[in-house]
């Protein structure tokens, strides 16, 4: 009988991990919720915000609103128009200007805020030339950063499944059969590979769904800005996930029971939450963002965000990706040492230093 | 043949195995006996390469066992373990492939084994849905799916009801008959007595006795005999060179000091009347075990 080669053992482990995970309800629920959430975020504002503004207009000036994207209710005089505004039945009212201040000969009456959409319907806007076309309005920018950070958080936390699966193997002691059959490194490699492939699959589906959602939401201009950033985000997120996967596997290997998992997951969770909050809080601080975009774990989300906001050049992204890839190699090697040093210690929690020394 | 030579292993200051040597011969079921904490499980883990020995070697057919050869072993760990949420047929097939079988062979072996172990109708159930006894049978299937060349089973019969013991025994005997060396540990001496060919007794990390079951019995047998006659057997006590162990009406258990001393007793008994039974008293494994450890 020939021993399954390292590659085929790795692949068999990966295949099992994927099979098990795609059969859990939780996997599909979170995936579907993510996609639905993405669509909701992009499409719903258009659906709800897309109605024509309702405007009251005094008879004598109503003709000025002809052909505009407004729903007009004609009223006999200014008093009636104001009444409708006060009762919130209309967004604004257009009344004759008696002071001569208005070139158009009308005034706009509104409750608390100047009604931008009504005003812009009345004014012929001059053509605009944007010098920095990538500059997106800051609200949209924040939303995109939030979405990037959320995906990182979501997939990073999803790595906890690796810790679960590792500790299940330790707890049930099937690990003894596995270790006597295939190299420990193949076990670790297979686990990481399986989860990375599944995560990549989800990221790619989301990355493909995002443009569709943006188009449905009639956000063509935004799409043009987001698309290149997405292209950076996918590889960064996948590399970042490998790093996190290695950390999760170690977290699982250090304990012997599911109940103790909480005590070792802290570091991995910190490495997921840190970049998430870092990017959220400091997205307006170029200095911090620059640092974050080179530090291995946060680079996965900070660099794509900087590419999106136009703050980083392509060479910066490539450099950061190189650093990330190098740290993937280093951390996975280190993790594999700790993993094999702790996997067979089935009594209680193993200290990191002890696992590193392979002491037993 | 699997040969253990001078295997030693310590955990901290605790020397669990001290220069342990024994053989597991092909085609024979070798019972591995010892009290709790005597080092049985540690020894088995070392054979499987799950633990490294601090001294000594495990060799297979004369040459030291390599990592590449270990997948040809079938192993059932002491603390049972398979994936609780995986369907059993799928799980066994997967383990077969992990041991190097192609998918079709692994599938075929799984089906055959589940049939042998009378688990076919549970093939699609998750492991955790099975009773403990049935989970144990699945564990046996997991150890056998890749047609291992050596079987190392840690307490394969614990937790099985008598019918399940028979089924599992049948499966194991078949493998032994096909020439596979089988090493199994047990603390149920009656079970071991009934089914092993060779016995290795370990006590506090050293081998206390080893050999074929018959050899051990002969070695540890006393010159003890049982005689049942038609009338009262009280006269035996007066014979020279005879020590009474037990006397109860027509039945006497005695030991003789001279070789063939029992022949004189038998001749005497026949002269006095009918003899219903006359046989050497063979020590049970239980007795040998208690004597050596």
Automatic annotation (TrEMBL), chain A:
Membrane topology type, per the record?
Multi-pass membrane protein
Q: Name one Pfam family in it.
A: ABC2_membrane_3
Tell me which residues make up the ABC-2 type transporter transmembrane domain. 31-335
MF (Gene Ontology):
ABC-type transporter activity
| Cellular component, GO annotation | membrane
Membrane spanning segments where? Answer: 26-44, 143-163, 192-210, 222-249, 261-279, 286-305, 317-339
Q: Does the keyword Membrane apply?
A: yes
Quote the InterPro entries the UniProt record gives: ABC2_TM
Protein's UniProt keywords contain Transmembrane: yes
Alphabetized, the UniProt keywords read: Membrane, Transmembrane, Transmembrane helix
* Localization (cell): Membrane
The name under which this protein is listed is: ABC transporter permease
Q: Which organism is it from?
A: Umezawaea endophytica
Q: What is the lineage of its organism?
A: Bacteria, Bacillati, Actinomycetota, Actinomycetes, Pseudonocardiales
From TrEMBL, chain B:
Keywords of this protein's UniProt record, alphabetized? Antibiotic resistance, ATP-binding, Nucleotide-binding, Transport
In its UniProt record, which GO terms are filed under biological process?
response to antibiotic
Q: Where does the record place the ABC transporter domain?
A: 2-229
SMART domains in the record: AAA
Name the UniProt record assigns to this protein: ATP-binding cassette domain-containing protein
Name the InterPro entries on file: AAA+_ATPase, ABC_transporter-like_ATP-bd, ABC_transporter-like_CS, ABC_transporter_ATP-binding, DrrA1/2-like_C, P-loop_NTPase
By its UniProt entry, which SUPFAM superfamilies does this protein fall under?
P-loop containing nucleoside triphosphate hydrolases (SSF52540)
Q: Which PROSITE patterns match?
A: ABC_TRANSPORTER_1, ABC_TRANSPORTER_2
**Record organism:** Umezawaea endophytica
Give one GO molecular function term: ATP hydrolysis activity
Q: What does the UniProt entry say about where the protein is found?
A: Cell membrane
The record's family statement is:
Belongs to the ABC transporter superfamily.
Kindly give the Pfam families that the UniProt entry links to this protein.
ABC_tran, DrrA1-3_C
Q: How does it sit in the membrane?
A: Peripheral membrane protein
UniProt GO cellular component terms: plasma membrane
């Amino acid at each position: 009988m020939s021993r399954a080669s390292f590659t085929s053992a790795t692949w068999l482990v990966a295949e099992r991990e994927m099979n098990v995970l795609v059969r859990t309800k939780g996997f599909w629920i979170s995936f579907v919720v993510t996609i639905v959430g993405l669509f909701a975020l992009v499409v719903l504002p258009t659906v709800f915000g897309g109605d024509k503004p309702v405007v009251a207009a005094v008879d004598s000036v109503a003709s000025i609103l002809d052909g505009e994207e407004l729903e007009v209710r004609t009223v006999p005089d200014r008093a009636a128009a104001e009444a409708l505004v006060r009762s919130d039945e209309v967004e604004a009212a257009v009344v004759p200007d008696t002071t001569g201040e208005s070139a158009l000969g009308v005034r706009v009456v509104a409750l608390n805020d100047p009604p931008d959409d009504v005003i812009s319907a009345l004014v012929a806007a001059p053509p605009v030339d944007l010098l920095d076309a990538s500059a997106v309005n800051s609200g949209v920018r924040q939303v995109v950063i939030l979405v990037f950070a959320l995906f990182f958080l979501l997939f990073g936390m999803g790595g906890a499944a690796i810790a679960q699966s590792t500790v299940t193997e330790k707890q049930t002691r099937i690990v003894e059969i596995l270790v006597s059959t295939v190299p420990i490194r193949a076990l670790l490699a297979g686990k990481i590979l399986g989860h990375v492939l599944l995560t990549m699959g989800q990221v790619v589906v989301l990355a493909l769904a995002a443009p569709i959602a943006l188009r449905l939401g009639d956000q063509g201009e935004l799409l043009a800005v987001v698309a290149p950033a997405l292209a950076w985000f996918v590889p960064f997120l996948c590399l970042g996930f490998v790093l996190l996967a290695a950390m999760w596997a170690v977290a699982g290997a250090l304990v012997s029971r599911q109940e103790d998992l909480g005590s070792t997951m802290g570091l991995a969770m910190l490495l997921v939450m840190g970049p998430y909050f870092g990017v959220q809080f400091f997205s307006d601080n170029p200095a911090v963002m620059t640092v974050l975009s080179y530090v291995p774990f946060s680079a996965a989300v900070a660099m794509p965000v900087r590419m999106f906001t136009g703050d980083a050049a392509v060479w910066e992204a490539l450099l950061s990706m190189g650093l990330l890839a190098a740290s993937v190699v280093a951390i996975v090697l280190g993790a594999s040492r700790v993993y094999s040093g702790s996997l067979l210690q089935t009594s209680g929690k193993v200290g990191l230093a002890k696992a590193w020394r392979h002491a037993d | 043949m699997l040969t253990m030579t001078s295997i030693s292993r310590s955990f901290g200051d605790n020397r669990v195995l001290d220069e342990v040597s024994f053989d597991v011969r092909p085609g024979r079921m070798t019972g591995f006996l010892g009290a709790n904490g005597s080092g049985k499980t540690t020894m088995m883990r070392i054979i499987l390469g799950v633990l490294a020995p601090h001294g000594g070697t495990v060799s297979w057919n004369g040459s030291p066992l390599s990592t590449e050869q270990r997948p040809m072993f079938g192993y059932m760990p002491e603390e049972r373990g398979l994936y609780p949420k995986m369907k059993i047929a799928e799980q066994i097939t997967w383990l077969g492939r992990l041991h190097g079988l192609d998918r079709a062979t692994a599938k075929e072996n799984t089906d055959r084994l589940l049939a042998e172990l009378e688990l076919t109708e549970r093939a699609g159930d998750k492991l955790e849905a099975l009773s403990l006894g049935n989970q144990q049978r699945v564990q046996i299937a997991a150890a056998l799916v890749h047609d291992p060349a050596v079987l190392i089973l840690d307490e394969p019969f614990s937790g099985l009801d008598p019918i399940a013991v028979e089924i599992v025994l049948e499966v194991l005997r078949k493998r032994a008959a096909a020439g596979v060396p089988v090493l199994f540990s047990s603390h149920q001496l009656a079970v071991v007595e009934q089914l092993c060919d060779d016995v290795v007794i370990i006590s506090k990390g050293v081998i206390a006795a080893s050999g074929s079951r018959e050899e051990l019995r002969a070695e540890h047998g006393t010159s003890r005999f049982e005689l049942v006659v038609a009338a009262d057997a009280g006269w035996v006590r007066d014979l020279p060179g005879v020590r009474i162990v037990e006397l109860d009406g027509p039945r006497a258990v005695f030991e003789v000091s001279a070789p063939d001393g029992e022949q004189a007793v038998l001749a005497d008994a026949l002269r006095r009347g009918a003899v219903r039974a006359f046989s050497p008293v063979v020590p049970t494994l239980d007795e040998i075990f208690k004597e050596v450890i």
